[in-house]
Structures are given as C-alpha cells and as structure tokens.
Amino acid sequence: MNIRIAAALAVLVSAVVHLWLWFDGVKDQGTVGALFVVNVVAGVVIAVLLVRWIHWIPLFLAAGFGVATLGAFLISASVGLFGVETGWSWYAWVAAVSEVLAVVLAVVAAAREGYLSRGGTQHGGSVGTAHLH
C-alpha cells in the first residue's frame, strides 16, 4: 500500500505543476490550456483511486498518466504540440521526474500485488484471464 501512496503523490505532484502553470498563463493557450485542466482533474482522480481502490485499474491509469503526460511534454519541447512549444525549466523537471516515478511505482506495485504474474493473483486472477466456476 505504501507504494500506491507514493505513486499517488507522484501523480499529484504532476497535477499540481500543471495547475500552477495553468494559472501562470497556460489557460490562455487554447487547446493546451484545456488539456492542462484535464490533466489536473485526471491526476486528482487517479491519486484518489490509487489509495481507495485496490485493483489493477488505478495502477494502469497511473502508468498511463505518467507516459501520456511526459510524452506530450516531450513532443511540445521538440516539435510543438497544438502550436505550443516549450522547453526544459525547473517545473518541467519536477513534472518529468514525478511522471517517471508514477510509471515506475505503478509497475512495481502491480508486480508486488501479483497483477503481472502469469499464475493469477491474490485478487482474483490476472488481467485477461477468465475464471469460469
């Protein structure tokens, strides 16, 4: 459970950075501004799910959040995203580190909780396996 809390904190750090940037002027950047709001809301929801729902889905969402958010930043920093180009700054580093942590911690938690094993889990079977009784 402690790994889930750490993953939730990592997701929240990224969400807080995006909220801060939204208030700092990103809100006026059209599509990117709207996507920052989606990022903040999704980050809060995922963080709550991570600590309240012991299931593989919140772990999957946390990893996906980290990959998608970091990927969007890397696209924006290299070729631009929806007409917005950005660069590496202290807040970009904070968000990037938290997003990498979210992915790593979600995968570690999934492994420790048995969701990545082939033989089933302590929580009713592995992903994609139907149990007919």
Descriptive report:
With 133 residues, this protein is mostly helical. It is 68% helix and 0% strand. It has four helices and no strands. It has helices at 2-23, 31-52, 56-78, 90-112. α1 packs antiparallel against α4, α2 runs antiparallel to α3 (56-78) and α3 (56-78) runs antiparallel to α4 (90-112). The longest helix has 23 residues, at 56-78. Residues 128-133 have low confidence and may be disordered.
Structure keywords:
133 residues, mainly alpha, 4 helices, elongated, disordered C terminus
User: How much strand content do the residues show?
Assistant: under 5%
The DSSP helix count reads 4
The count of strands amounts to 0
Order of helices and strands: HHHH
Radius of gyration: 16 Å
* Uncertain residue ranges: 128-133
Question: What's the mean pLDDT score?
Answer: 85
Helix content: 55-70%
Give the N-to-C terminal Cα separation: 30 Å
For the sheet with most strands, the description reads: none
The dominant shape is elongated
- SS content category: mainly alpha
